[in-house]
Design brief:
The complex is a heterotrimer of chains A (377), B (537) and C (308). With 377 residues, chain A is of the alpha+beta class. Chain A contains 11 helices and 10 strands. In chain A, the strands form 3 sheets. A 5-stranded mixed sheet of chain A has the order 3-2-1-5-8. In chain A, a hairpin with a 4-residue loop joins strand 6 and strand 7. Chain B has 18 helices and no strands. Classes of the chains: A alpha+beta (377), B mainly alpha (537), C mainly alpha (308). Chains in contact: A-B, A-C, B-C. Chains A and B meet through helix 1, helix 3, helix 4 and strand 7 of A and helix 4, helix 10, helix 11, helix 12 and helix 13 of B.
C-alpha cells in the first residue's frame, strides 16, 4: 500500500461532491451509452440529495453535541413534541423523493424500450463461461462461440506477474458494431449468472429456463470489460465479460470471417480427418474445455477429477467414451459437453484423449461416429 | 397426572422468593428470564466471534489480488456462513437476549409470559448452529451459495450438506417463532397496572412490532426451504423451469422473508437508542407518539418492498416501478426517527458515556447506510450497484455500526443493572474509538470499490481494486480485535467492577431503574403502579 | 381484586424444568436423522433410521410429560387468569404463524400459475421466454404437458374438479366429500364446546368423538386420493409444477389434519377422564381453534387447488 491510496481515500468523498476529475477512479463510470449516462446522472442527483440532507442532519447534531453539553453548563429544556415539526419533516423528504422518482421512472421506461433492433445476440451463461450466439431474424443461429477467461492459473496463484487486465480478459470477446441497437436474449444453462458491462449501464440476470431481454447502443468503439455478478459457484470470480465494439466496416469483416469459419465447421461434420488433424484439433478443444479439471498431463486432480491417462474409459470401447463426454455424468462437475461441442470437436477431443499421455488405442474417431452414435439413441 | 405428584408442584409464593438453582442445571433447565437473557447474550457474543473470524478470513484473502490462503470453493463457504452466522446467530439472538432481560423489568412483570417455552427457544439455537457449522466439515463442503441461497445453486447444484442446512434453518425459525410469541404475550398481557400501550418504553414498542414481523416472515422462510428440500429430494419443480417452475420464484419468496428480516435487525436497535439518547441528553424523548407511528409504518412498508433486491432479475416494468416507489417511501418514516433523535439531543444537557457514544455513532453511521440504501432503491441506478461492494458497504453500515453498535450500547447501558457493577469507563471509551475508526476504515472504501465495479462474493479481484481492498482489510482487523477488548471490559466489570447504584445514570427513567442493581432474580413479584412520568424516558 | 382472573399480584412462574431442553435434543436428533436418511437415499446408500427414531421417541415422550405437567399444574389451581390469557395469546399467534406458512405455498401456487407458466408458454410480459426456449409448451392450468417432459414426466391427469354442470361426476369427486366432512367436523367440535359450557358430559364425549372420527375419515379419503393419483393418474410429486404445488399444499394440510386429529383425540381422552370446566377448558379450546384453522385452510385449498 502506498501513501497515495490513503490520500485518495481522504480526498475521495470531497472529490465526489465537487465532481472533480479525482472522482473518475472512485465513482461510477459515466459509460458509453445514452442509458449509462442517464444512470450516472441519476446516481449523482440522488447522491447530492443525500449529501445535502446529510449536511443538515449531521450539522444539527454537531451543533447540539458541541453547544448543549453538560460540561458547558447546558441546562436541559423540557419540550418533547411538536406536531408541526413532525408534519414538516414528514412532508419535506416525501416531496424530495417524489422529485427523485420522476426522472428515475423516465430512465426505467427507456431501459424497457426494447424492439426496433438491428441485430440479436443470445447470451448464455455456463459454469463458468459465456456463450454468444449470433441469431438471424427468426432467432436461428448463424454462428456461436464460447468466451473463456484467459488469465492463467499462474497469475492467479501469484507465480507469474499479473497482466493489467488480470481476471478481465477472455479468449474470444463478444463483438458488436458501434451505433447499432443490439438486442440481447439472456439465459443460462445451469445456475443463475448475471451479465454486466458497467460502461453500458446494463446488468441483468441470466436465469436458467427463462429469457431476459436487454439492449444497448454503444456510441464509441473500444473494448469494454465487466464480470459475472451473480454468485454462480466455485469460479464465479473468474467469469469476465469482454465486449469489443468495432466500427461498422471492421465489424462486417469480422462477421464475414466468422460465417466462413462456421461454414468450414459445418462441412467438417461430414468430413473424414487424418489422425494428425484430429490430434491438433483435439489438443485445442482439450486445452479450452477439459484442462481445468483433467489437467494438461492428463492426470486429473484425484479424487475429485479423475485422470484420463490410463483411464478405463479412455482405453475402453470408444462408444462409451463418446457417450461419457457427450452426456457427462449427472450430479458431478463432468458436464454434458454434447451441448457445447459439435460432433467434429467431440470426435477430435475423444481421439486426442485416446492417443495422449501414453494412451494408445488403435481406433480413429471421426465426426460421423459421434453423429451415428448419438442419433442412434 | 397422578394425585400424589401434586405435592411436588410448588406453591405459588415459594417460587417468587428463591434464587437461582446452582450448578449446570441452573442454565440447562432455567425458566428465568434473566438467566435465559444471559444465555442468549453470551451465545450471540460467541457467534459474533465465530462469524467475525470468518469475516477476517474473507478479508485476509482479499488483502491482495491473487489467491493467497484459501481456494475459491472455500471462500464461498466463508461468505455464506459469515452472513448466516452474523444474521441468525449474532444479531437476532442478541436482541432476543436484550428483550428477555429488559421486557419484564420495563413492564413491571415477574418474568416472561411463557417461561418454559422461553427456555426451549434458547436451547434450540445451540443445536441449530452446531448443525449448521458442522456442514463445513461434511463431504462436499458446507453451504457455498451465499446467505440468500438462490436456487438452483442451492438445490440442483448444492453440496449434499444443504439438507442439514435446511433443517438448521427450520430449527432457527422455530426458535424465533416461539421467541416472538413469548414476547407478544409478555407485552400484551404482563404489563403492570397503569402501563398503557402508549406509556411503554420505546424499546418495548419496537420489540412488539419486531415480534409481529418475525411471526409473519419466519414461517415463509420455513416454507421456502421446505420447497428446496422437496426440489432436492423428491423431484418437485418449484424452482425449475423444465417442470413449469421458476428459479426467480425462489427469490420472491426468500425476499418476502428477507427484507422484513433486515428490519427485524434494526427496529430493536431503534428502540435501544431511543432509550439511551434521552438518558444522556437529560431530556425526554422527542416525539414519542410519532416514533411509534413511524416504527409501525416501517414495519408495514417492509412487506411490500422485497423485490428491490431483485431489480436485475428482469421483472416486468410495472413491478419494477412499484417496488422502487415503495422502497423510497421507507426513507420518510426512518427520517422521522432520525429527526426525533436529534431533536431529543437539541438543547439537552449531554454527557458522553460509552453507551451514548455508541448511540451517537449509531445515528450518524446508520443514516449514512440509509442514504446508500436510498441510492440502491433507485432501480435504474441499482443496475450499476447491484451485487457490487457498494451493496456490501450499504448493508454493513446499517448492520455493523447500526445493529451491532446498538447492541454494544445496550450492553454498556444496562450492564450495571444486570450485574450490579460498573464497567471501566476509560476502557469503554477506548473500545468505542477503536470500533468507530475501525468500522469506517473497513466499510467506507467499499463504496468506492463497488462504484468502480467490484462484484461481491469473489475471492479474487482485478488490479484496480487493490488499494481499497487493502485498506478495508486493515480496518477489519482493527475492528475485529477491538471486540476482544469489549469482551475484556465486560468480564472485568462483572468480576471486579465498582458497585452500581439502582438508578445508575443520572438521567435514566423507566421501571427497570427503580429496581436495585443487580436486579432481583424475579423482577417484580408484585406489580408496581405505573404513573405517567416514570413510564419511559 | 376479587376476581381471581384479574389478579395480577400473584403470578405462577414454573420452577426449572427438564422438559424444554429435552425437546431441543429430540428435535435435533430427529432432524439430523431425517437429514442423513434423505442424503443416504440420494447417494444410494442403505439408509439408517436409528437416530431419527431415537430423536422422535425423545421428542414425543418429552412433549407428553410436558403437557401432562401443565395440565397437572392447572388442576392444582396454580394457573391464574393472567397466565391463561398468555396461553390464549400464545396459541392464537402460533396459528397466525401457521397461516403464514401456508401462505408461502399458496404464493408459490399463484406465482407459477399466473406468471411463470404463462411466461414459459409464451404469454404475458415475458412471452419471449416461451417463444424462444419452449416453443412447444402450451400454457394451461392444470399443467399436464410440462415444458420439458424428458426431465419432468407429464402427469397423466390432474385432480381438477369436474365442470359445474356434471352433477354425476361431482358425486364421485372425493375432494368434495372431504370438504363436506371437514366442514361438518367444524360444527361437531363447536357443539362439543357448547356441551362443555352446558356441563353436558355425554354430549361432549359424543360430539368430540364424532369430530375425531370425521378427521380420521378425511385422512383415509385423502390417502385414497393420493393412491389414485399415483397409481392411476400418473400425478406424482415429480410430475412438474402442478404435482409439486398440489402435493405440497394438500400434503401439508393433511399433515396438519393428522396433528389436529391427534390433539383432538387427546382432548377426548381428557374429556373421558372428566377434565374441562365451562371456564377452564383451554386445552380443548386450543385444539378446536386449531381444527377450525385447518378447516379454513382446506376451504381455500378446495377453491384454489381443486376448483378454480
Ligand atoms: C439493518 C438492516 C438494513 C436496513 C435498516 C436497510 C435499510 C434500507 N435498505 Fe438495505 N439491505 C440490507 C440491510 C438493511 N437495509 C441488506 C443486508 C442488504 C443486502 C442483502 C443481500 O443481498 O445480501 C440490503 C440491500 C438493499 C437493497 C438491494 C441492493 C441490491 O442488492 O442491489 C436495496 C435496494 O433498494 C436496499 C434499500 C434500503 C433502503 C431504501 C433502506 C431504508 O430503510 C433506509 C432509510 C434510511 C434513510 C434514508 C436515512 C435516514 C433518513 C433521513 C435522514 C430522511 C431524509 C432523507 C432523504 C429524503 C434523502 N437495501
Ligand atoms: C449481520 C451482521 C454482520 C456483521 C456484524 C458483519 C461483520 C463484518 N463483515 Fe459481513 N456480511 C454480512 C453481515 C454482517 N457482517 C452479510 C449478511 C453478508 C453477505 C453474505 C453473502 O454474500 O451471502 C456479509 C458479507 C461480508 C463481506 C463480503 C463477502 C463477499 O461478498 O464475498 C465482507 C467483506 O469484507 C464482510 C466483512 C465483514 C467484516 C470485516 C465484519 C466485521 O464487523 C467483523 C468484526 C470481527 C469480529 C467481531 C471478530 C472478532 C474475532 C477475533 C478478533 C478473532 C478472535 C478469535 C477467537 C477468539 C477464536 N462481510
Ligand atoms: Cu457466473 Cu457468477
Ligand atoms: Cu431490502
Amino acid at each position: 500500500m502506498n501513501k497515495n491510496c490513503l490520500q485518495r481515500l481522504a480526498v475521495g468523498s470531497i472529490a465526489l461532491v465537487s465532481g472533480s476529475a479525482w472522482a473518475d477512479e472512485l465513482n461510477m463510470p459515466v459509460g458509453v451509452t445514452e442509458i449509462s449516462r442517464k444512470i450516472y446522472g441519476l446516481h449523482m442527483d440522488i447522491f447530492m440529495v443525500c449529501v445535502v440532507v446529510g449536511c443538515i442532519v449531521f450539522g444539527a447534531m454537531a451543533i447540539s453535541i458541541f453547544l448543549h453539553r453538560k460540561s458547558r453548563g447546558a441546562v436541559p429544556a423540557t419540550f418533547h413534541e411538536s406536531t408541526t415539526l413532525e408534519i414538516v419533516w414528514t412532508l419535506l423528504p416525501a416531496i424530495i423523493l417524489v422529485v427523485m422518482a420522476v426522472p428515475a421512472t423516465g430512465v426505467l421506461v427507456d431501459i424497457y424500450d426494447a424492439g426496433g433492433e438491428d441485430m440479436v445476440v443470445e447470451i448464455r451463461g455456463y459454469q463458468w463461461k459465456w456463450q454468444y450466439k449470433y441469431l438471424d431474424d427468426d432467432y436461428n443461429r448463424n454462428f456461436d462461440f464460447f468466451s473463456n477467461m484467459s488469465t492463467t492459473q499462474d497469475e492467479i496463484h501469484n507465480v507469474s506477474v499479473k497482466d493489467q487486465n488480470y481476471l478481465l480478459d477472455v479468449d474470444k470477446p463478444l463483438v458488436i458494431p458501434v451505433n447499432r441497437k443490439v438486442r440481447f436474449l439472456l439465459t443460462s444453462e445451469d445456475v443463475i449468472h448475471a451479465w454486466w458491462v458497467p460502461d453500458f449501464g446494463i446488468k441483468r440476470d441470466a436465469v436458467p429456463g427463462m429469457v431476459n431481454e436487454l439492449w444497448t447502443i454503444v456510441d464509441q468503439s473500444g473494448t469494454y470489460r465487466g464480470q459475472c455478478t451473480e454468485l454462480c459457484g466455485k469460479d464465479h470470480g473468474f467469469m469476465p465479460v469482454v465486449v469489443k465494439v468495432l466500427p461498422q466496416d471492421g465489424y462486417d469483416a469480422w462477421y464475414a470471417a466468422q460465417v466462413k469459419t462456421e461454414r468450414a465447421r459445418r462441412e467438417a461434420l461430414s468430413k473424414t480427418f487424418t489422425a494428425d488433424e484430429l490430434m491438433a484439433e483435439g489438443q485445442r478443444v482439450y486445452d479450452t474445455f477439459c484442462v481445468a479439471c483433467h489437467q494438461a498431463n492428463g492426470k486429473g486432480l484425484p479424487p475429485a477429477f479423475p485422470g484420463l491417462a490410463g483411464s478405463q474409459v479412455a482405453l475402453g470401447p470408444v462408444d462409451a467414451h463418446i457417450r461419457m463426454v457427450y452426456e457427462g455424468v449427472p450430479g458431478t462437475s463432468m458436464q454434458a459437453f454434447g451441448k457445447q461441442l459439435d460432433a467434429a470437436e467431440l470426435a477430435a477431443v475423444v481421439h486426442f484423449e485416446r492417443h495422449s499421455w501414453g494412451n494408445n488405442t488403435d481406433d480413429v474417431t471421426q465426426p460421423k461416429d459421434v453423429i451415428a452414435l448419438m442419433e442412434g439413441q | 397426572m397422578s394425585e400424589a405428584s401434586h405435592h411436588h408442584v410448588p406453591a405459588v409464593h415459594d417460587d417468587h422468593h428463591h434464587g437461582p438453582a446452582s450448578g449446570l442445571t441452573r442454565w440447562l433447565f432455567t425458566t428465568n428470564h434473566k438467566d435465559i437473557g444471559t444465555l442468549y447474550l453470551w451465545f450471540s457474543f460467541a457467534m459474533l466471534l465465530i462469524g467475525g473470524t470468518l469475516a477476517l478470513i474473507i478479508r485476509a484473502e482479499l488483502f491482495q489480488p491473487g489467491l493467497q490462503f484459501i481456494e475459491p470453493e472455500f471462500f464461498n463457504q466463508m461468505t455464506t456462513n459469515h452472513g448466516l452466522i452474523m444474521v441468525f446467530g449474532a444479531i437476532m439472538p442478541a436482541f432476543v437476549g436484550l428483550a428477555n432481560w429488559l421486557l419484564p423489568m420495563m413492564l413491571g412483570a415477574p418474568d416472561m409470559a411463557l417461561p418454559r417455552m422461553n427456555n426451549l427457544s434458547f436451547w434450540i439455537l445451540p443445536f441449530a448452529f452446531s448443525m449448521m457449522i458442522s456442514t463445513l466439515f461434511m463431504e462436499g463442503g458446507g453451504p457455498n451459495f451465499g446467505w440468500t441461497f438462490y436456487a438452483p445453486l442451492s438445490t440442483t447444484y448444492a453440496p449434499p450438506s444443504v439438507t442439514f442446512f435446511i433443517f438448521a434453518v427450520h430449527m432457527m425459525g422455530a426458535s424465533s417463532i416461539m421467541g416472538s410469541i413469548n414476547i407478544i404475550a409478555t407485552i400484551l398481557n404482563m404489563r403492570a397496572p397503569g402501563m398503557t400501550l402508549m406509556r411503554m418504553p420505546l424499546f418495548v414498542w419496537t420489540w412488539l412490532i419486531t415480534a409481529y414481523l418475525l411471526l409473519a416472515v419466519m414461517p415463509v422462510l420455513a416454507g421456502v426451504v421446505t420447497m428446496m428440500l422437496f426440489d432436492i429430494h423428491f423431484g418437485t419443480s418449484f424452482f425449475n423451469a423444465a417442470g413449469g417452475g421458476d428459479p426467480v420464484m425462489f427469490q420472491h419468496i426468500f425476499w418476502f422473508f428477507g427484507h422484513p428480516e433486515v428490519y427485524i435487525m434494526i427496529l430493536p436497535a431503534f428502540g435501544v437508542v431511543s432509550q439511551i439518547i434521552p438518558t444522556f441528553s437529560r431530556k425526554p424523548l422527542f416525539g414519542y407518539d410519532s416514533m411509534v407511528y413511524a416504527t409501525s409504518s416501517i414495519a408495514f412498508l417492509s412487506f411490500i418492498v422485497w423485490a428491490h433486491h431483485m431489480f436485475t432479475v428482469g421483472m416486468p416494468l410495472a413491478g419494477q416501478l412499484f417496488f422502487m416507489y415503495a422502497t423510497m417511501l421507507i426513507a420518510v418514516p426512518t427520517g422521522v426517527k432520525v429527526f426525533n433523535w436529534i431533536s431529543t439531543m437539541w438543547r439537552g444537557s449531554m454527557t458522553f458515556e460509552t453507551p451514548m457514544l455508541f448511540s451517537i455513532a449509531f445515528v450518524v453511521l446508520f443514516t449514512i447506510g440509509g442514504f446508500s440504501g436510498l441510492m440502491l432503491a433507485i432501480a435504474p441506478a441499482d443496475y450499476q450497484y447491484h451485487d457490487t461492494y457498494f451493496v456490501v458497504a450499504h448493508f454493513h453500515y446499517v448492520l455493523v455500526p447500526g445493529a451491532l453498535f446498538s447492541i454494544i450500547a445496550a450492553v454498556y447501558y444496562w450492564l450495571p443493572k444486570w450485574c450490579g457493577r460498573m464497567y471501566d469507563e476509560r476502557l469503554g471509551k477506548i473500545h468505542f474509538w477503536l470500533s468507530f475508526i475501525g468500522v469506517n476504515i473497513t466499510f467506507f472504501p467499499q463504496h468506492f470499490s463497488g462504484l468502480a465495479g467490484m462484484p461481491r462474493r469473489i475471492p479474487d479481484y482485478a488490479l484496480q481494486f487493490a488499494d481499497f481492498n487493502m485498506i478495508s482489510s486493515i480496518g477489519a482487523f482493527v475492528f475485529g480485535f477491538s471486540q476482544l477488548l469489549f469482551g475484556y471490559v465486560l468480564i472485568k466489570a462483572i468480576v471486579s467492577g465498582r458497585k452500581a447504584t439502582s438508578r445508575v445514570w443520572e438521567g435514566a427513567h423507566g421501571l427497570e431503574w427503580t429496581l436495585p442493581s443487580p436486579a432481583p432474580y424475579h423482577s417484580f413479584t408484585h406489580p408496581p403502579k405505573v404513573v405517567e412520568a416514570e413510564a419511559h424516558s | 381484586m376479587s376476581d381471581p382472573s384479574k389478579d395480577t399480584s400473584v403470578y405462577y412462574v414454573p420452577e426449572n424444568g427438564w422438559h424444554p431442553i429435552w425437546v431441543a435434543v429430540g428435535v435435533f436428533l430427529l432432524v439430523s436423522g431425517i437429514g442423513s436418511w434423505l442424503n443416504d437415499l440420494q447417494a444410494g446408500v442403505e439408509p439408517s433410521r436409528l437416530i431419527l427414531i431415537i430423536g422422535g421417541l425423545i421428542l414425543i415422550a418429552t412433549l407428553w410429560f410436558w403437557f401432562a405437567r401443565v395440565i397437572e399444574e392447572n388442576s392444582a389451581g396454580l394457573v391464574n387468569g393472567q397466565l391463561k390469557r398468555s396461553y390464549v395469546w400464545g396459541m392464537s399467534w402460533f396459528i397466525f404463524s401457521e397461516v403464514m406458512f401456508f401462505l408461502a405455498f399458496f404464493g408459490a401456487l399463484f406465482y407459477t400459475r399466473v406468471l411463470a407458466v404463462q411466461w414459459l408458454g409464451g404469454e404475458g410480459e415475458k412471452a419471449i421466454t416461451g417463444d424462444y426456449l419452449w416453443p412447444d409448451f402450451v400454457p394451461s392450468w392444470p399443467v399436464v404437458q410440462n415444458p420439458d417432459p424428458l426431465v419432468f414426466n407429464n402427469p397423466g391427469e390432474s385432480m381438477q374438479a369436474p365442470a359445474i354442470t356434471e352433477i354425476g361426476a361431482w358425486s364421485a369427486y372425493l375432494p368434495l366429500w372431504n370438504t363436506i366432512i371437514l366442514l361438518t367436523s367444524s360444527f361437531t367440535v363447536h357443539f362439543a364446546h357448547t356441551a362443555i359450557k352446558n356441563r353436558d358430559r355425554t354430549k361432549l364425549n359424543l360430539w368430540l368423538a364424532g369430530t375425531v372420527v370425521l378427521g380420521v375419515v378425511f385422512l383415509i379419503l385423502q390417502v385414497e386420493e393420493y393412491v389414485h393419483a399415483y397409481n392411476e393418474l400418473g400425478l406424482t410429486l415429480d410430475s412438474g409444477i402442478y404435482g409439486s404445488t398440489f402435493f405440497l399444499l394438500t400434503g401439508f394440510h393433511g399433515f396438519h389434519v393428522c396433528l389436529g386429529t391427534f390433539i383432538l383425540a387427546v382432548q377426548l381422552g381428557r374429556a373421558l377422564k372428566g377434565h374441562f370446566e365451562p371456564h377452564d377448558c383451554f386445552g380443548f379450546e386450543a385444539a378446536s381453534w386449531y381444527w377450525h384453522f385447518v378447516d379454513v385452510v382446506w376451504v381455500c385449498l378446495f377453491v384454489f387447488v381443486y376448483v378454480v
